[in-house]
Write a structure and sequence with these properties.
Oligomer: single chain
Radius of gyration: 25 Å
Distance between the termini: 46 Å
Helix content: 25-40%
Number of strands: 20
Bound molecules: ligand BES, zinc ion
Structural class: alpha/beta
Length: about 475
């Protein structure tokens, strides 16, 4: 429950949370008319220590208690400080909003719980005091945070409730205002010769789809394409995953989910470029009617691919989606976003998404972006691209004994930029979910990459060197 108020006097029976970055900030709370002895206690606490959290019970009927978060250490990350103290913050909260309020982000992202399947639903009660001048900033940030938490909800949802049919319905229900939705059904996938998408998805009872989201501003502007992996569940098929690697595979759609909510985020914003997303949806399932290691499949662009490992399914669905857009549209750049490799997870843990290849403008801006979402660039060179070629087919979907697992993804996929478009690849395997509460991440889906990607593409036309 969220209420936006104009003044403190409108609120009753809540806990007031105050973040003070220095002693003088406190003066902005003079209106509370705290008793002299309380004021001197606060002042003493400030003098004695920095980076502290303490509560004051006022005994007043409007605020049950006031929680001061006093932060004064430029060297330490403010988010970490908030994270360390966030357990002190109750479910019924009041705070004052000022531009870029870090408390707003921390409370909403940290207090998030996935409750869709719980019989008893506990709800957060949030009162935000906001002055007229700040209302637009607050409303905008709240809508971004909602897209992040909606993204979490979708990634957290069990695979049985996000089958291709249900997912397509979900997208239609999102009520985009300026974004066109095009759905390529399974029959059409086969007719168009999108054989790699068909190979991965046809074994499932829930047949594959290719969804295209289009935001065309002006045909004269450059067109940026994003491709997101939506694997409903990744069993690994004949190269079956072991128990501990299988469980979390319901999140194997986090890449396209991030793009879906990024499109929602920019749906009503002004853009300087056309943005289109291709979201191939399939379930890497188990049945006799599926691809096997050793099968050779002719892809959409006619390059043949030998399947070495059925668990490297993402290379296949992204490859067909990429060559489909590369052949049919005139593009400035392609960016793929996906939960791709355990290798990236081992290299970067759950703090950084891996990013690489040759669109410097996108990569540099992601590396220095100012949201909570961090990226790290991984190395590449042409040697790896050569290694994707094969003697009995044009390409193979896994090159053994190379070890640079993360680097090999762009190497394989770069074969499907048919017109040498600039290509950026983002691996979010490590950062799409976490197994314990940490920092702004709640347990499980992080919902991240909506914020940094939407900001990047909103800015794209302005920063372009064209
Ligand atoms: N869906 C996985 C990648 C993944 C791993 C996502 C861990 C989230 C957490 C991907 O399809 C996969 O199976 N990757 C394999 C590739 C290997 C068989 C070449 C991997 O990285 O182990
Ligand atoms: Zn996968
Ligand atoms: Zn896999």
């Amino acid at each position: 429950m969220l209420h936006i108020w104009k003044s403190f006097s409108e609120i009753k029976n809540s806990h007031l949370v105050v973040l003070l970055k220095n002693k003088f900030d406190f003066e902005t709370y003079n209106f509370l008319h705290l008793e002299e002895k309380i004021l001197s206690k606060i002042e003493k606490t400030f003098q004695d220590q920095k980076n502290t959290c303490f509560k004051i019970f006022t005994g007043r009927e409007d605020f049950e208690e006031i929680i001061f978060l006093f932060y004064l250490d430029v060297k330490k990350d403010l988010h970490l400080f908030l994270w360390e103290n966030i357990s002190q913050i109750p479910e019924k909260i009041t705070f004052k909003y000022e531009k870029d309020n870090i408390l707003l982000d921390s409370i909403i992202l940290w207090k998030y719980d996935y409750i869709e399947y719980k019989s008893e639903k506990k709800e957060l009660e949030l009162n935000i005091i906001c002055e007229d001048l700040q209302t637009n900033n607050l409303t905008y940030r709240l809508s971004t945070l909602k897209n992040i938490t909606d993204n979490r909800d979708l990634v957290n949802k069990p695979s049985c409730d996000k089958t291709p049919d249900k997912y397509v319905q979900f997208i239609k229900n999102m009520k985009f205002k300026n974004t066109k939705i095009k759905i390529i059904e399974h029959e059409e996938i086969k007719r168009l010769w999108l054989n790699l998408i068909d190979a991965v998805g046809r074994a499932s009872h829930y047949k594959p789809r290719l969804v295209i989201l289009e935001r065309i501003i002006d045909k004269k502007l450059p067109t940026l394409w994003l491709v997101g992996k939506w694997i409903i569940f990744d069993t690994g098929w004949l190269n079956i995953k072991t128990e501990n690697h299988m469980y979390n595979m319901k999140d194997d759609m986090a890449g396209s989910s991030a793009l879906l909510f990024m499109m929602k985020e920019i749906d009503e914003q002004n853009l300087n470029s056309n943005i289109i997303c291709a979201l191939p949806i399939a379930e890497n399932s188990i049945s006799s009617d599926a691809y096997r290691p050793g099968d050779i499949i002719k892809s959409y662009c006619w390059k043949t691919v030998e399947i070495i490992n059925t668990d490297a399914e993402w290379r296949l669905i992204l490859a067909d989606a990429m060559s489909y857009i590369s052949k049919n549209y005139e593009l400035e750049s392609i960016t793929t976003v996906a939960t791709l490799t355990g290798a990236c997870m081992y290299a970067l843990g759950y703090n950084y998404a891996g990013v690489m290849w040759n669109n410097r403008q996108i990569i540099d801006n992601l590396l220095k972006n100012e949201t909570f979402e961090s990226y790290w660039e991984l190395p590449f060179n042409d040697f790896y691209k050569e290694k994707t070629k094969w003697n009995i087919s044009d390409l193979k979907n896994l090159t053994e004994w190379i070890f640079a697992g993360s680097t090999m993804w762009w190497a394989f996929l770069s074969n499907f930029c048919l017109n040498n478009e600039k290509f950026t690849h983002i691996d979010i395997a490590g950062v799409s979910f976490v197994k314990e509460k940490y920092w702004l991440y709640n347990e499980w889906a992080t919902g991240f990459w909506v914020d940094s990607l939407s900001k990047l593409f909103l800015e794209y036309g302005k920063i372009s060197e064209r």
